[in-house]
Amino acid sequence: MRYTLIVILTILFNVSYGQFFLYPTIISNGQSINDFVPMGWKILDSAFGDLNKDGFKDAAIILQHKDSVLMVNNLEDTVLTQPRILLLLFKNPTNNKFLLVEESNSFILKHDNAIMDDPYQGITIDKGILKIAFHLFYNMGSWYSTSSTYKFRFDKKEFVLIGADLITIHRASLEYETYSYNFLIRKRSYAKGNEKTGAKKTSVRILDLSLFQTFKTFKHPYSWEIETGINL
Fold it and tell me: For residue 208, is pLDDT > 70?
């Protein structure tokens, strides 16, 4: 099944375990987002918006190591890559500083696969929802491209995954499948069609889920087999 192929190819650049590399210790608070950038790192992307509904603009930043380093992925292959870090910061109106509330060294996919484009697409904050987008486009080995968006919301003490969208399309036939998950109401919408012919079939199903995923439990995209053969 094509999702299995996607997972096999994705695993080559998915979360890496640093045998030769140690991630830096990030400071707990700072006056600006630049204060959270360790030596040898740079800001790859950032977004601002109110994440905890206190009326102040918080920040989400993605750091990238300036140099390529050797890392061992979960296939025990040594790859040359630039590590990335996701940091979520709350604005403290009392001292006008940012406070580090979440850090992930694994959720932001790295560009360490020579046969594909950079999978990271962007990060936004919209109406309190943190959205992170990826796109898997292989130059060889697969006719399919995959786009995904993950939506997190701060709830009490942590960020929980409240929704996700997964779209696959065959680049030649333009046949596509879309999965849209709403974990708040535990519902999945599905559509299958063809952009050339306009044909389309849709369905909806209820999800049997008891717990929300967080950055601590859902550490890297495409690692959660939410349905048989479907890796979110």
Answer: yes
Residue 8 CB partners (closer than 8 Å, separation 6+): none
**Segment 4-43, tens digit of pLDDT:** 444 434 444 444 344 468 999 999 999 999 999 999 999 9
Please say if the pLDDT value at position 210 is more than 90.
no
229 burial level (CB within 10 Å; 0-12, 13-18, 19+):
exposed
Q: What is the CB-side half-sphere exposure of residue 200 using CA atoms within 13 A?
A: 7
Listing DSSP states for 130-175 in one string gives EEEEEEEEBSSS-SEEEEEEEEEEEETTEEEEEEEEEEEEETTT-E
Please choose, from the candidates 82, 90, 100, the residue with its C-alpha nearest in 3D space to the C-alpha of residue 16: 82
Assign 7 to helix, strand or coil. Answer: helix
11 contacts 29 by C-beta, under 8 angstroms: no
Please choose, from the candidates 103, 72, 83, the residue with its C-alpha nearest in 3D space to the C-alpha of residue 42: 83
pLDDT computed for residue 73 by the predictor: 66
Residue ranges covered by each domain of the chain: 2-221
Cα torsion 78, 136, 189, 161: sign: positive
- Alpha carbon distance 175, 99 (integer Å): 45
Encode pLDDT of 142-200 as tens digits.
Answer: 899 999 999 999 998 999 999 999 999 999 999 999 999 999 999 999 999 998 898 89
